[in-house]
Design brief:
3-stranded antiparallel sheet; alpha+beta; 28% strand; 20% helix; two-stranded antiparallel ribbon
Amino acid sequence: MPLLVQNEITNRTVFSKSIQGSMQTFVWEAKDDPRGGDLIRVPDFFKDDVDFLNALDQGTLTLVESDDPDIKARIEAQANVIAQRRAAAEQRLAATIESRQGRDILGAQCLGPAISGRGQCEQIVLQPASAKEDEPPLCERHKVLHNEFALMETGSKGDPSNPLRKQWVRAEMTPRVRQSV
């Protein structure tokens, strides 16, 4: 029974061998070839060919199907080895990738008053997402007002129609009332 063998690399793979005095060439198309050219049948005696076994060990080719129980065991062992190699390579790669968590930047409109005195300042302030509850979003002109703002919670924890929200609110300054003595 012939062996069903698949190409595992993204390039065409050519395997040539002298069989009974004549040169035989087997060509696998690139992995995931839409016409299925990456999967071909080869003669059963390849299971004992050193060059073919080396191509299997390197992961260039993989055995997909065979009726021989010994070959089925080799297929499973090879699949396990390849899976372990890939997992180890993925772990090594993941260790080299810099984590970008916690580096999000948010843009919010400045909460200070507009220059005209009516409305809100129109400048956009960029600040780290992790610090949005530490400082109110104020532009350089309005940074001096940071003590006039407080973080207020609105909504309720248990009500899905009115979820809990936090927002910066400017405290209203009232003139002091003098007492007459």
